[in-house]
Amino acid sequence: MGVLATGVAAYALAVILLPSFGPPFVHDRRASVPLALYAHLSGGALALALGPWQFSRRIRRRALAVHRWTGRTYLAAVAVGGAGALGLAPISQHGLVTHFGFGLLAVLWLLATGTAYLQIRSGNVRAHRRWMIRSYALTFAAVTLRIYLPLSAIAGIPFPDAYQVVAWLCWVPNLVVAEWLVIGREAAVADELAPAVRS
């Protein structure tokens, strides 16, 4: 997960730094909505790169201050990237299906990350972890999108059709996996507590 996230983050950074790099529609957005584009690319890239480290138990146990400051930076990155995504969603390619797919992704990304922050501020560590899993599942949509699009091209699916599907496919299954992980974590915690409850 970390390797794929870092690779896509590096790709986004290259798009920011190299004017001739990236697909044609990025060049169009660079001219028409540069603030939204750069906010989305920079915030998303930083969130992608930082997210995997937030799940490291070693860092949480040995360097809690690092975990907290990385988390704050992740929060800011999602805020910037999500705001940019909201600006880009209404002008995404190939119509209302993609507008709504990417727009809802942006809204849920901001909500999940904001909820994770509010939960840790209130001292609810377990709820914070649940919401951070959901948040990073949505952040990881940047990776899954770049997996599904080449696969759809290899399968011979026309890009407009593929893009409309991938606007949803890049994040809905991620959330399903996140919920599966959350449920599995809760079941594991319940199993650990069961002997103590019985005694």
Question: How much strand content do the residues show?
Answer: under 5%
Poorly predicted regions are: 192-199
Mean of residue pLDDT values:
89
* Structural class by secondary-structure content: mainly alpha
**How does the overall form come out from the CA principal axes?**
globular
Q: Taking Cα atoms only, what radius of gyration do you get, to the nearest Å?
A: 18 Å
The number of domains is 1
Instruction: Give the proportion of residues in helices.
Output: over 70%
- DSSP strand tally: 0
By oligomeric state, this entry counts as single chain
What about the largest sheet? none
Could you state the order of secondary-structure elements as H and E?
A: HHHHHHHHHH
Alpha-carbon distance between the termini?
40 Å
- The DSSP helix count reads 10
What does this structure look like?
It contains ten helices and no strands. α2 crosses α3 (34-50), α3 runs antiparallel to α5 (64-88) and α7 runs antiparallel to α10 (172-198). The chain has one domain (2-198). Residues 192-199 have low confidence and may be disordered. With 199 residues, it is mostly helical. Helix content is 83%, strand content 0%. The longest helix has 27 residues, at 172-198. 31% of the residues are buried.
